[in-house]
Amino acid sequence: xxxxxxxxxxxxxxxxxxxxxxxxxxxxxxxxxxxxxxxxxxxxxxxxxxxxxxxxxxxxxxxxxxxxxxxxxxxxxxxxxxxxxxxxxxxxxxxxxxxxxxxxxxxxxxxxxxxxxxxxxxxxxxxxxxxxxxxxxxxxxxxxxxxxxxxxxxxxxxxxxxxxxxxxxxxxxxxxxxxxxxxxxxxxxxxxxxxxxxxxxxxxxxxxxxxxxxxxxxxxxxxxxxxxxxxxxxxxxxxxxxxxxxxxxxxxxxxxxxxxxxxxxxxxxxxxxxxxxxxxxxxxxxxxxxxxxxxxxxxxxxxxxxxxxxxxxxxxxxxxxxxxxxxxxxxxxxxxxxxxxxxxxxxxxxxxxxxxxxxxxxxxxxx
Length: 367
Fold this sequence. Notes:
Elements: H1 4-28, E1 34-42, E2 49-56, E3 62-68, H2 82-95, E4 99-103, E5 107-112, E6 124-129, H3 143-165, H4 176-205, H5 207-220, H6 230-261, H7 278-292, H8 296-300, H9 308-314, H10 322-325, H11 334-365
Parallel strand pairs: 3-4
Antiparallel strand pairs: 1-2, 2-3, 4-5, 5-6
């Protein structure tokens, strides 16, 4: 992981670039009700942070302020991180800015501060997934990334935001299930990247693992791919990682949905600490938890081949929790990979409860 000082330098440089692009864009669009963008610095030393603020015409109070976090860092794992959203809200509340945002460069989320009496996630107005797939702070300096943000994202955002501020946006809120899915996808970005990189690294070092992985892809998933084509193979590994992480997350969601109804009967789901049994202990922990929660797949182990037990120990694909715990082995990025799942478990229970309660409310409202 980059050092705090290096992360800080990338953040300062990126925010300065965004301010410059925003100012040029606002000057070119006098029909928008915005005059300028500024950067406010706070904190000390390596803990200094920068807020981007946007001002509305005829007002000395920012109409928008927000938090920018670098991709590939713990703080930038998801713009839906609960502490990040709360911090952004607090700063907007302190200066009475009506709107605030969180942005990890990959995804930008806009919130309405006036919805202070709702759960934080329900204050969200919209999000923009840039589709950049950035994994390191330094990626923000790539010419194609800067061109996309400057020439495509910022014009799209400000045009939309201008319509919102002027009351011309019409219906732009999203349903609770849409918000939940967007938040879920965002929180899974980091585990997906960690799993993909793990699979890529092991395939380079272990030909037997690579053969089993390719067999699973071709026979069980019916995918066509070319391991000799770097771009095609990377996309295939990304699909594999995404599939495995999403299957695992579905089981975790099922477990949390049951626990939300029977909180006294099921323990909190969390990533176990490292122990003498390492990944096998993690595998056993999740399989036992999912069985306890009544997940039928954890009993049948659907989708696993006859070699699933051995593959589970080594991190190969399968329908069991092994597809997540397999990459939780010692080595580069180990701490980040575990931290990614710990963050996911920390967020998911509250999200499931909010979605369940809101859905129930909507049902009764329409009876």
